[in-house]
Write a structure and sequence with these properties.
Blueprint: H1 2-26, H2 31-35, H3 49-55, H4 57-67, E1 73-78, E2 81-86, H5 89-98, H6 125-135, H7 141-168, E3 172-173, H8 174-191, H9 204-213, H10 217-225, H11 227-235, H12 243-262, H13 272-280, H14 300-313, H15 315-331, H16 333-346, H17 363-375, E4 382-385, E5 390-392, E6 395-397, E7 402-405, H18 407-411, H19 430-434, H20 454-471, E8 472-475, E9 498-503
Parallel strand pairs: 2-7
Antiparallel strand pairs: 1-2, 3-9, 4-7, 5-6, 8-9
Helix pairs in contact: 3-4, 7-8, 7-20, 8-15, 9-12, 10-11, 15-17, 15-20, 16-17
Bound molecules: protoporphyrin IX containing FE.
Length: 507
């Protein structure tokens, strides 16, 4: 009898939750009508989410973008949340740069647990400004030069691994290999740690980082549908990100910070850790941000959060661009040859690893990397939230409205890029760039909230690709599948990115 009542109660609760959610979804259907913004047909309950499930995020983004070809913006519903998608490039400039103060924040759907809840990606307003100014100097030219030795060390390691593969005639799946390499590089550039997951398949650092790239999508979807259930699940220990991996990194980061504090090299390495320790001297955990003594002071949680985002934001992004660029060059040998000719001309004729100075002037390699990030940008969309109502180019952005900038669709727009599916590095030659709209290409975002580590990322990309292509020809192999079939949910090739390294005949 008790059980029957319990089940009945539960069923009633579910029906009630469904009705409330359905009603609240109905109650926002007028938003775009009131704003005079068109929106593709959608389900009241799911919004446009089901289309994403059915066709995948890439196709849905480009399809909706094409539907409103002559409009500055259009609207989409993520379940019941209305969001304005900006497709006009001048309006994108206004949102990201000219009227940045109205659009400082990103949407924070699911944040990490303390102590990692204050990453640059997630924090808001003045708090973000303070932390961003403390972190930005990490990527000055002087510091980047010092970080370079870690990139060079890992490039050497990659060279040895590729030597072995080519001797045994094995093919290489680039994404897997580049993920390991990137993790080793981040551990070095960020924390002064020497790890070698390239040659140690079960490296703990790498395994835990991998766990972070496979979050619990069910938690994410349920939170989108019923935000209140997200909080309940969290309190029950059902989390979006794996707690075991978070605990592992908290320990690693605390150890790295402690060892550095006690080391005689503290303050002399000029890397991210030094900078964070320097900022830590004045900050006290628990203080409200406005009570800090000024810009440049950080609490322990702020430091741990930035350290973790350094790991996470730099991992999948850099490894994706490395692997897609090398893959595209393998399937387009004519462009690979041009990169190699440039390397042969500009780099010393020995086996040394290219360094900070030597990769500064490799324009054709730059063009190939840019073209690869146009076709396969790791950040598919950017978002901002309007914090103060504003009307721009006749479009009213109400306070609190999420604003989406569809990077992938813009990079694939045939009106901006002729035959956008073709790999043509010539699009980024100095002459071609002059005729491009400055806001038609933004793999690192735009404006004050763009990628804080763009220069480090570009340095890593150039050193690693130059190291590989100086010594090897990358060629297609039996497992190579081109054109690339992207997964529906993330920037990943369904069939992998397979190539064969062959030692160059000329070297
Ligand atoms: C090719 C590699 C990379 C790409 C394509 C990339 C792309 C991006 C994009 C699109 C954004 C959002 C920008 C915006 O909203 O306007 C971003 C933000 C960010 N990225 Fe990167 N990123 C890369 C590498 C890295 C690396 C190596 C790190 C760290 C070491 C990093 C750390 C961050 C951080 C902390 C933010 C948030 C910045 C803020 O809100 O102030 N990224 N990145």
């Amino acid at each position: 009898m008790d059980l029957t009542w319990l089940l009945l109660g539960l069923a009633l609760l579910l029906v009630l939750a469904f009705l409330v959610t359905r009603y609240s979804a109905w109650s926002v259907r007028h938003v775009f009508r009131d704003l005079g913004i068109e929106t593709p047909p959608s389900s009241v309950f799911f919004g446009h989410f089901l289309e994403g499930m059915k066709y995948g995020i890439f196709d849905v983004q480009t399809h909706q973008y094409k539907m409103f070809k002559d409009k500055k913006v259009y609207g989409v519903y993520e379940f019941k949340t209305p969001m304005i998608v900006v497709r006009d490039l001048d309006l994108i400039k206004d949102v990201c740069v000219k009227h940045f103060n109205n659009f400082v924040d990103r949407r924070v759907l699911l944040n990490m647990e303390p102590p990692f809840h204050q990453t640059l990606l997630a924090i808001l307003g003045d708090h973000w400004k303070k932390v961003r100014s403390a972190v930005s100097p990490t990527f000055s030219s002087g510091r980047l030069k010092k970080m370079c030795r870690h990139i060079e060390r890992n490039a050497k390691s990659l060279q040895l691994v590729l030597d072995a593969r080519q001797e045994s005639g094995e093919e290489v799946e680039l994404k897997e290999m580049m993920s390991r390499l990137t993790m080793d590089t981040i551990a070095g550039t960020g924390f002064g740690l020497d790890i070698d997951s390239l040659r140690e398949p079960d490296n703990e650092f790498h395994t835990n980082a991998q766990a972070f790239t496979k979050p619990n999508l069910a938690v994410f979807i349920v939170t989108l549908m019923f935000p209140f259930l997200g909080k309940i699940m969290e309190s029950m220990g059902i989390k979006f990100l794996p707690q075991k991996a978070a605990d592992f990194f908290e320990k690693v980061l605390d150890n790295a910070l402690r060892e550095r504090r006690e080391s005689e090299n503290a303050g002399k390495m000029h890397d991210f850790l030094d900078l964070m320790l320097n900022a830590e001297e004045h900050g006290k955990e628990g203080e409200a941000c406005d009570k800090h003594e000024g810009v440049g002071t950080l609490t322990r949680n702020e430091i741990l959060s930035q350290a973790l985002v350094f790991l996470l934001a730099g991992y999948d992004t850099v490894s994706s661009v490395l692997s897609f660029t090398m893959f595209l060059l393998a399937v387009h040998p004519e462009h690979q040859r041009l990169v190699q000719e440039e390397l042969d001309k500009k780099l010393p004729l020995d086996d040394s690893i290219p360094d900070y100075e030597t990769v500064q002037n490799l324009p054709y390699l730059d063009q190939c990397i840019s073209e690869s990030m146009r076709m396969f940008p790791p950040g598919l969309i950017l978002d901002r939230v309007c914090n103060q109502e504003i009307t721009l180019h006749g479009v009213r952005f109400p306070k609190g409205m999420p604003v989406v900038l569809p990077i992938y669709a813009i990079h694939m727009d045939p009106d901006l890029w002729e035959n956008p599916k073709d790999f043509k590095p010539e699009r980024f030659s100095p002459e071609a760039k002059e005729s491009q709209h400055q806001y038609a290409y933004f793999p690192f975002g735009h404006g004050p909230r763009n990628c804080v580590a763009m220069r480090l990322a570009q340095l890593e990309l150039k050193i690693i690709i130059a190291t590989v292509l100086r010594r090897f020809d990358l060629t297609p192999c039996q497992k190579t599948v081109y054109p690339v079939q992207l997964s529906s949910w993330q920037l990943a090739a369904n069939d992998g990115l397979w190539v064969k390294p062959e030692r160059r005949a000329t070297k």
